Request: fold
Amino acid sequence: MDGRHTALGNIPHMTDGDIETLLAALTRETRRVERVDLSFGAVWIKRYGTERPPVWTKAQTGLASLFGLPFLRPSPALDSKGMTAREIRRIETFAAHGIPVPQVLYASGNALVLSDVAPTVTARLDALRDTDPAAHDALLVRCAADLGALHAKGLCHGRPHPRDFFVAGDGIGFMDFEEEPEAAMPLADAQARDLWLLFLQLTDRARLGEATARQAYGAWRAAAPPETEAALATMIRFLAKFLSPTRLIGRVHMGSDLRRFLAATGYLSEVLLAPRAADASKAGKDD
Ligand SMILES: Nc1ncnc2c1ncn2[C@@H]1O[C@H](COP(=O)(O)OP(=O)(O)O)[C@@H](O)[C@H]1O
Ligand SMILES: [Mg+2]
Reply:
């Protein structure tokens, strides 16, 4: 690999052995995402065809129309060929905007072979967690900043999670583009959803508590479009109604999903819904 992560760029030279290994792995059809070691390094095979459970999709669509909330609408469902095509198209779009993404080395009907972009941000965070909390949280802030930069370019990740981010030089690269929420809702809503999804992870992982959440939010906000922050406020106003019942349930059993929901939605509602914070946000973007 040449260290750059542009899509459909130079394909590394494959030996006969590599082709044999890759073909064997492609036809084995075991795991959905699989790392395969070849002579020049690793590649990743990603297979499509295991669609989202339709029950959840239907429930999500129902909820979205019931509450008139676009951010609950699921991405349009596609068959495995459609999923593959969507991921390739999105990788190309992100690459065209100068965002680091894995390179597509090979595409068949329902599988992709991607260049190795390891280490993921999750792997970096795990390594830094106990050894360097400041660097750990700085990486989280960087994720929020780069998500904001991506939003400023009119893009949306769809399912931002540190395991689908990678370290690319000083910045963050992105992978896993199966979702396309902006096809089902206005872009500002889709980007607002992105920020909330990132904060589910970020507030829970931060070693330095609210200071990190504040820096991360500030970094995202400095780059992201103002209409996305307005869409986020609407979304958080709705989600905040679930804070009290969720806290009650949490007293009986605090699972990790509940904990993340409370931390992220709690923090964002303080920032976006508290009157004092609203005044501060009107004052300028430099807080
Ligand atoms: N090109 C790649 N380079 C490095 N790691 C990868 C690559 N593709 C996938 N992975 C790893 O596999 C995981 C799952 O792949 P992903 O594309 O996110 O599929 P899924 O839809 O199952 O989440 C990623 O979170 C990442 O850890
Ligand atoms: Mg993923």
About this structure: The domain at 16-115 is CATH 3.30.200 (Phosphorylase Kinase; domain 1). The beta strands are 33-38, 41-47, 104-107, 111-115, 165-168, 171-174. The pocket of magnesium ion (ligand 2) is lined by residues 163-164, 176 (CB under 6 Å).
